[in-house]
Design a protein that fits this description.
Layout lengths: L16 E3 L6 E3 L3 E5 L3 H6 L10 E5 L4 E2 L3 E2 L8 E3 L1 E7 L16 E8 L2 E2 H10 L4 H4 L5 E2 L4 E2 H4 L6 E6 L2 E7 L7 H11 L7 E3 L7 E2 L5 E6 L3 E7 L2
Parallel strand pairs: 3-15, 5-11, 6-18
Antiparallel strand pairs: 1-2, 3-4, 7-10, 7-16, 8-9, 8-15, 9-12, 13-14, 13-17, 17-18
The chain binds manganese (II) ion.
């Protein structure tokens, strides 16, 4: 009877990963960064100032991603909201601060995702000036499409981002309307965090956020890039 000398006390959780379009390998998720208030029309609808200076960041856990088509309705909310967003997937580590003009070299590819939000809990947190973790970083709060490799898609942001719920258009905007561009955001994040291959960045949502109910069907996409669909569990 010897003492154990190595190994985990119990089996670690499995590595969250996202399918990559056209490849058999998947994208292993390290962290999920999210940008707040990156479209001025959405900032206004949330009663916020159009941001100047630094972007707003928050995070979700890596295992918040949903790659299947059924999204569970979360506990502890009566006001689940959709926020459709471009997602940037990083395929290289940053070594210190990344200049905006070098930032796209870190990009592995692009996807579209939903930054699901417990809007009632977020409103309470804002009122009390408390953190957003319970309103943003909950389980299954990040449904995401397959990732399109940048070597296939290029870095073209003159594309329309959209979301339909039960076949009605809810949100749409050109990606050129983002306040902070993808290179800007990668630069700003690299000042604050050690960016790694496997990081995802949800780039913020345009106007039109609204409730998702049990049984709702959604489809989301970026024209000419990728789309995905699913439903909220009944
Ligand atoms: Mn968002």
């Amino acid at each position: 009877m010897g003492l154990p000398v190595s190994g985990y006390a119990f089996a670690p959780c499995s590595q969250p990963s996202v399918p990559v379009l056209g490849r058999s390998s998947t994208f292993p998720v390290h962290r999920i960064y999210c940008v707040g208030r990156n479209f001025s029309e959405h900032a206004r609808e949330m009663g916020a100032e159009v941001p100047r200076g630094s972007p707003v960041f928050f995070m979700k856990p890596a295992d918040a991603i949903v790659t299947g088509s059924v999204v569970p309705y979360p506990s502890a909310t009566d006001d689940l909201h959709h926020e459709v967003e471009l997602v940037v997937a990083l395929g290289r580590d940053a070594h210190g601060i990344v200049a905006a003009q070098d930032a796209l070299s870190l990009v592995f590819g692009y996807a579209v995702g939903l930054d699901l939000t417990r809007r009632d809990l977020q409103a309470q947190a804002k009122e009390k000036r408390l953190p957003w973790d319970t309103s943003k970083g909950f389980d299954a709060s990040a449904p995401i499409s397959a990732i399109v490799p940048a070597e296939v898609s290029g870095h073209d942001f003159d594309r329309r981002l959209w979301l339909r719920v039960n076949d009605k258009l809810r949100q749409q905007s050109s990606l050129t309307d983002m306040v902070f561009s993808v290179p800007d955001i990668i630069h700003e994040l690299s000042r604050l965090f050690a960016l790694r291959a496997g990081d995802l960045v949800f780039m913020g949502t345009p106007a039109g956020v609204a409730a998702l109910h049990r049984g709702d069907r959604f489809s989301a996409g970026v024209d000419g890039l990728v789309e995905f669909s699913g439903e909220v569990a009944a």
